Amino acid sequence: MPDARPDRPSSSRRPSPTQAPGARSRDRRDKSAAHPLIPQPDHPIAFLRGFLERPKEVGSIIPSSRWMERRITRTAELATAKLAIELGPGTGGTTKALLQAMAPDATLLAIEINPGFCDLIRETIDDPRLIVHEGSAADIADALAKHDLGAPDVVLSGIPFSTMPRELGLAILRSVKESLAPGGRFVAYQFRDVVHTLGKQVFGAADVQLELLNVPPMRVYRWDMPTGSR
Ligand SMILES: C[S@@+](CC[C@H](N)C(=O)[O-])C[C@H]1O[C@@H](n2cnc3c(N)ncnc32)[C@H](O)[C@@H]1O
């Protein structure tokens, strides 16, 4: 994929004076690839600041736990996905976990509405498989068209459906359904069950799991698209 994409992550934008462009992020990625269970640095302060600035949009004061990240990657069966979309990557902790679980030739499109979070992810994650798109989860088709991508196998969402207007929540869920490939899956993780209440109207009932090792404990919902048609 060409590097000229405007939304491509570019850690080389702000290299330290003593470093080759992109060197620091590459080092970090290489270390985590060699030791996949070592926790990666997160950005709790940037996350909290994001929450204080836009509480309803961010919906949580801390990012998801490592256990939560593992549960969503397993539930979404990310290792088999060619194209996955993350809705609401926040400061990128979940994004790194998704990339670790994905194949070397896969693509992850991260759609985030908060421009500050988009900048942070672009600056801290140097991975050619990642495309960061600033925009709304209600406009998945536009994001796919802009980046010349087809239908995703997987959509994951950490966005807070309980603090957004019901109509926006339904628009996001319809946007997910319309974008997914036949046989694709949608995984949403939430503290409250609003996403399931709305999701029943769009997809039907979900498979539900509970992850206790997260603050707060979260429900994880999975919906599967029919294989033949949408
Ligand atoms: C609870 S945080 C989840 C962050 C991260 N995925 C995690 O689990 O730690 C929710 C994120 O969804 C983003 N968000 C909220 N509404 C959105 C929308 N309509 N489209 C895209 N992102 C949205 C927020 O800016 C925030 O980054």
Describe the structure.
The protein has 230 residues and is of the alpha/beta class. The chain has one domain: Rossmann fold (3-Layer(aba) Sandwich). The chain has nine helices and seven strands; from the N terminus they run ααααβαβαβαβαβαββ. The protein has helices at 23-34, 44-53, 55-58, 66-75, 93-101, 115-124, 140-146, 166-179, 194-202, and strands at 83-87, 107-112, 130-134, 154-157, 185-190, 207-211, 218-224. β1, α5 (93-101) and β2 (107-112) form a beta-alpha-beta unit. The protein is globular. The structure holds S-adenosylmethionine.
Radius of gyration: 17 Å
Oligomer: single chain
As a percent range, the share of helical residues equals 25-40%
Strand order of the largest sheet: 3-2-1-4-5-7-6
Which stretches are low in confidence, meaning pLDDT under 50 for 5 or more residues running? Answer: 1-40
- Element order, helices and strands? HHHHEHEHEHEHEHEE
Question: What's this model, at a glance?
Answer:
The protein has helices at residues 23-34, 44-53, 55-58, 66-75, 93-101, 115-124, 140-146, 166-179, 194-202; strands at 83-87, 107-112, 130-134, 154-157, 185-190, 207-211, 218-224. With 230 residues, it is α/β, with parallel strands linked by helices.
Label this structure with key terms.
230 residues; alpha/beta; Rossmann fold; seven-stranded mixed beta sheet; 9 helices; 7 strands; disordered N terminus; binds S-adenosylmethionine
